[in-house]
TrEMBL record:
InterPro entries: NAD(P)-bd_dom_sf, Sc_DH/Rdtase_CS, SDR_fam
Plastid is among the record's keywords: no
Name assigned to this protein: DHI2-like protein
Organism: Mya arenaria
Gene3D superfamilies the record matches: NAD(P)-binding Rossmann-like Domain
Entry keyword set: Membrane, Oxidoreductase, Transmembrane, Transmembrane helix
Amino acid sequence: MTLFLHLSTMNFVVDDDDIPEDDVIIFSILYSCVTVVFAMAVLSKFLTNEFRFGFRSALSLAVLFLGEPLCQFFVKGPLGVGCFAAGCLLIYSILPASHLPVGNKAVVITGCDSGFGNALVKKLDAIGMHVYAGCLDKDGPGADEDISKAVEIVRLDVGSEGLWGLVNNAGVCYFSELEMTPEPIMRKMFDVNLFGTVNTTKAFLPLIRQAKGRIVVVSRRISFEGYGAYGMAKHALMAFSDTLRQEMKKWSVNVSIIEPTGYRTGRKEEIWEKLDENAKATYGLDYLDEIYSSLMEQCKTFPDDLTPVVRAMRSGLLSKRPKERYPCGAGADIFTYVMNLLPIWWGDTISLAMSPIPKSSHPAALRNDQ
């Protein structure tokens, strides 16, 4: 018996005389079973909005419609069925995991004044989670007192179920070269971005361990010109998060890091007011104005859609298989991996090319020398 597969104008001919007809029927049934199971699994993810149409979903459709005929007519026999089933299983494994039911899960989110935190509060509230939203108030009382009060309020509310999730989203960023960054500004970035997250996490950990819940940290390793002090705090926060993830495994607590692109920055006036006279004379106010004007122009290119970051935060909280890291933004994951593989001098060249500091701008001391 000869089987023919006609695709477009191409004919693939395979001689199956060595396969008994009864076996061909059995293999066809097995292929059909694998196809139906895989199709139902992928369809269920679409219907529950677990993922949207993109590369991974297109890949699953390609395997569904092309994998079976290719394996059936080129690999043949039980090996072909095995290859097709293994391919379906592999593709399904890279699709986003389904989410846990919301139930009575409660989550604490910091930095909800605007941006990611504010959008996440609205999203989680819409799906029925109990949300405790914290806002950054620089004029408020001491952090330790605020945290202890918040922990007590949450503890009384959640009772024996504990706290399911903590999202450490609060952060501040000031754009300034390291020599131009006043010590009070640098300490402020460490206090909010690093120690604020550490203190908040440690305060809520007993309630999170009680629920065997999730911790989500918004951070990113960044070493770009003008983001030195901010990057120092974020590098330390990444080390804290990575270590915490390892230490919390024995408690069945998952820790995920969200790595978004694009950053809001503090006022340049605050930097200039706290800068010492020597640094002011070296760099000059004109230079600070120029780099901030360029930064504001670059910020206009950042996407306004916060959905990718909010979706990643939600997955970190509710996914059955939460990832350790969620790079967010166009090409963010590829950029991170590639930069780690490049020679340092090459990476520095790319970073400087992407810097918002104009190449035509020079500090006052260099202008005077010219």
